[in-house]
Amino acid sequence: MFTTIYPQLIGLCTGTLLLTSALMVWRHSLLASIRLLSVQGFALAALVAVIGLEEGEVEVILVSLLVLLVKGMGLPWVLARETHATTRTDEAPRLNPTAALLTVALLTILSYVVASRVLAGDISISAHAAPIGLAMVLIGFLLLVTRRQAGSQLIGFLVLDNGIATVAFLTSGGVPLFLELGISLDVLLVVVILYVFAGRMRTKFGNTEIDQLRKLHD
Amino acid sequence: MSFALWTPLAIPALLAVLSLGVPSPALRRLSPIASSVAVLISGLLLVSVVLADEVPTLGGGLLRADALSAYMLTVVGAVGLVSTWGGLGHATAEPARFTGSYDALISIFLAAMSLAVLADNIGLMWAAVEATTVATAFLVGHHRTPRSLEAAWKYVILGSVGVAIALLGIVLIYAASRGTGEATLSWLVLSQAGLPLDPALIRAGGALAVLGFATKAGLAPMHSWLPDAHSQAPAPVSGLMSGVLLAVALYAILRIQTITDAVIGPDFLRIMLSVGGLLSLFVAAALLIRQRDFKRMLAYSSIEHMGMMAVGAAIGPAALPAVLLYVLGHGLTKATLFVISGRILEVEGTPKIDDVRALLVRRPGLAVPWLIAMAALIGFPPFSIFFSEVGIIVAGFSTGLGVVVGIALVLLLVIFASLTRLTVAMTIGAPAATAVPVVPAAAVPAAGAGASVTGAVPVSVPSASVTLADAEPHPDDPLVPDRSGHGPMLPLILALGTTAVVAFIAEPVGTLLTRAAEVLGGIQ
């Protein structure tokens, strides 16, 4: 029973991941992006759980719970706290929505081309979906480069990180549990640090626009 | 002797907790030094063990010290000791709410770096390197000025994105290792020759991992965080980042290189590292010519030296002992220079080279060690950087990479000229007529240490006496040279002394370097 719906579940989860990433590029409101990030975290946890059920490994199920707690709830909560505390700042990105969505499409095609070369030897269902992870990494980069607000850059970083996790789970069933713990902790701490810096930026400059950070140069 | 594997992790961690929890200023100030000593002694113990042909392991092989790990741990400890001890007098004004956080973060940084070099697992090493980003973020932003905030933001974003790319590479290597039957991230397993690893995955994974760690190592074109972070961080932290963090990132690149070389041959990463190395040298040369800030000058010099080490790594086994010696020489010299630069910044109150003139006449206590250390950095013998650079260049010509090292040599000459000019501008010359002779209260010579430095003046820097003589035609000038070192001098003397003699010690240093290079598939 499970083996028949397994490919569909993988497809559903990775589809959600890609869709949320693309929507984050489209939406300019920070709060909407945070909600999408939370959905993405849940989708990633579901993906891990599906892989764990297929392989019948308890450790992978535990990892999926960890992902659910950190990426689905913890990180969005930290980000939302910061955003609620201030006035709602809408993003004015460097790229208009049409161009941005077109870029997302191109990046997705690119990642399929690249992955077909790298993963040529792997014909499993999960490896077939791995290009989605790569596309998320590239979309994360796109967000990092085109967004002007500190908070949006943070979201770009998290999409990138989710993409790497997706590749990890789809190509090798995920890294060992203790490593997943270490990696999650590191990412959580980086986000907390950037959150603190964004707070300092607001007290120093009155806003969190990255463009004003150009005093240091040669 | 496997206890020496956990002491460099546990003792700094414990000291970090203590410096946060115990309200004793003396303990707080001394805790980073104690952490460095713990790491250094553990490193030396492990070196003695590996020289006796043993490989201690701990935690089911998760921690492992071969010759390379033991050597790197010693470097981390030694550079840490110079930075923390030399930075003892450094003002660390911090809000009362965060008392002790500065010292605690330095201890955590040292523990994370020790874990990175001792872990026999790429993933664990990755987590440790990322943990150093976390630890150093607040250290870079310590001064809480808009500039340090900007530096810290750029550092964290670029650093974590770079390291995230490395993670993607590591994930692909992990996927490739399923070919061995059981997926693994152990160096020991993965660097064996003849494993059935998927070449396409190893190629992509190796490239991404090297790219990610190269960001952390400050190689061009991913170097832009480095000058900002190094110039804005407190001086001891800059020394630690330059001497330890960059070195450990290079260590990661060398380990990854061993894995890829065994599967797809050396040519692939050789091109990547040559391009990155030469580009770094070029960026450093271009931006040093017109540099105005002495801490940024040191930062660009770090990019230069990392570039040269990358060229050495590209050359491969023949150059590896020279590269490893380079790591030690550069770490100690750069830590010394950053410590002195912090003191100059404190007493002169300006980071501008133009505003710091005639240091040798006005403040010989700072100018003399600065000059000696700059000579070591620029690559004068007998300091070990000279021998490392010669070793890399000779190895390059003998392995058929003559063009690469030829270009590197030209760029090194440009950098040599720029650094010499900037150093001369800071130290030599007569003080401006309007200069108010500054005799701070702290000018009381620091007992024995100060005396030994002034005693070294005629021997090491002959021009010192000349310039002093030049200043004599103005007898009405009530200039009193400030002979104080403005902080502990012993760590600086030890560091420079070590770099001056280390290249001449065949036993055990030479043996250790050869063994460490063997770990990376060198000299067999």
UniProtKB/TrEMBL annotation, chain A:
User: In the UniProt record, does the keyword Transmembrane helix occur?
Assistant: yes
Keyword Transmembrane helix assigned to the entry: answer is yes
- Keywords for the protein's UniProt record, in alphabetical order: Cell membrane, Membrane, Transmembrane, Transmembrane helix
Residues that span the membrane, as ranges: 6-26, 33-53, 59-79, 99-119, 125-145, 154-171, 177-198
According to the UniProt entry, where is the signal peptide? none
Main location (coarse class): membrane
Q: Where in the cell is it found?
A: Cell membrane
Q: How does it sit in the membrane?
A: Multi-pass membrane protein
Q: Which InterPro entries match?
A: HyfE-like
Output the superkingdom of the source species.
Bacteria
Protein name, per record: Hydrogenase
